[in-house]
Design a protein that fits this description.
alpha+beta, five-stranded mixed sheet, 11 strands, four-stranded antiparallel sheet
């Protein structure tokens, strides 16, 4: 019932709306109550005056017009008007010995007996409830001012929400310090302090990782130079391949660092899935890949992705498939706008979602591989599906 009032602003709007509605109902009810009490007193007053006029006429044979005037009532003497009023009373079925009705917005009292017939106009009106209107107007104005004050106090929450959303998208260059002394200001200042601390930690981490990667590149470069001096061509090629692999891993770590810190720009371009697969196989840097991989292309298709990141996804899936395959063979199938990587082996011991965590620890741990895959697929708005059937594990990118 109250699903639409989940936000704090909606609840405040609801509370103040109900308050104003109740205030309006109370005001209208009080006006109606006063009117009903006036009608009750007025009818009793009219009956008393009618009895007095009747008794006075029976004693003196005259109408006490001075008394009527003092009671703000007047005797109607215009014959034509009396005829019209009499016709109106008869049409409404109110032509009796004593009756009260409205004629042309005038309250008319009929006193009718064998000796005389009188039409009196009662000019008594209910008093205009000026004091009550003033009181309710002041209360109404105070409620409106209170509502505006509360809404204005909540404005920093909306600003803080936008800052948090910006922060969650990876933008750490935000400032949300508040000069307010209320709880909202305290929350904003604490969040601003947390952002500053996280920014410093990330900068320290980035500096640390970059320093490590820089220091690692130096011995790798020296190792490559030393390998060139070897006379044994087979050893030379093997060492050269090892150092290339280490250099490639460092570049991948740099990409991973950018992905996890959301410090990167996507370069989306259309590519054939078969071309992406071929580039991913090259990244594996394995001799004679046909020995380990079988590729079946039923229907090639175009996909708009970041080339470097998406090839890293396929490369990690292929690497894991080879590593955990019982027969060290992997089948890749491209069809229907999906790419499936299959290997023979045991099923995952836990749901796939558990392996999305970095450094997931289990007997069949996939380490950072699946975590990196999930992170890259998320930013491409794609998903990874896992299935195990007839001792075949299948990872499908949809």
């Amino acid at each position: 019932m109250f699903k639409g009032f989940s936000s704090l602003r909606s609840k405040i709007n609801l509370v103040f709306s109900i308050t104003l509605l109740l205030l309006a109902i109370l005001f209208i009810s009080s006006i109606k109550y006063d009117h009903a009490k006036f009608e009750e007193r007025n009818e009793a007053h009219e009956r008393l005056i009618s009895h007095y006029i009747y008794d006075y006429y029976m004693k003196t044979g005259k109408i006490d017009e001075a008394y009527l005037e003092a009671q703000n009532m007047f005797l109607i003497k215009d014959k034509a008007k009396m005829i019209q009023i009499e016709r109106s009373f008869k049409e409404k079925g109110k032509y009796k010995k004593y009756a009260v009705d409205t004629f042309r917005l005038q309250r008319i009292i009929l006193i009718n007996n064998d000796r005389f017939k009188l039409f009196l106009e009662n000019k008594n009106k209910p008093k205009y409830p000026l004091k009550r209107i003033i009181v309710f107007s002041i209360v109404f104005l105070l409620i409106i001012l209170l509502y505006l004050w509360v809404v204005r106090s909540l404005r920093p929450i909306s600003e803080l929400k936008n800052k948090i959303k910006t922060f969650s998208e990876g933008n750490l260059d935000i400032e949300c310090a508040s000069k307010s002394n209320d709880e909202i200001g305290e929350v904003a200042n604490e969040f601003n302090h947390a952002v500053a601390m996280i920014r410093e930690l990330l900068q320290s981490r980035q500096l640390f990782l970059r320093a490590i990667m820089h220091e690692l590149k130096t011995p790798i470069a020296k190792g490559r130079l030393m390998s060139e001096m070897l006379t044994d061509e087979k050893s030379k090629v093997r060492l050269h391949s090892i150092f290339e692999r280490l250099n490639l891993l460092i570049d991948e770590f740099a990409k991973i660092e950018k992905i996890t810190s959301k410090n990167f720009d996507l370069h989306l371009n259309p590519y054939k899935m078969s071309d992406l697969l071929e580039a991913s196989i090259d990244l594996l840097m394995i001799e004679n890949p046909n020995r380990l991989l079988s590729v079946e292309i039923k229907k090639d298709y175009i996909v708009k992705v970041d080339f470097e990141l998406f090839t890293l996804v396929i490369k990690n899936l292929l690497d894991n498939a080879i590593k955990y395959s019982t027969d060290k063979h992997v089948t890749v199938l491209i069809e229907h706008e999906s790419i499936a990587i299959k290997n023979k082996g045991e099923a995952l011991k836990e749901p796939l979602e558990n392996y999305f965590k970095p450094f997931h620890t289990s007997k069949n741990s996939l380490g950072l591989g699946i975590y990196i895959v999930k992170s890259i697929l998320d930013i491409h708005h794609r998903r990874l599906k896992y299935d195990h059937k007839d001792e075949i594990n299948t990872f499908t990118i949809l």
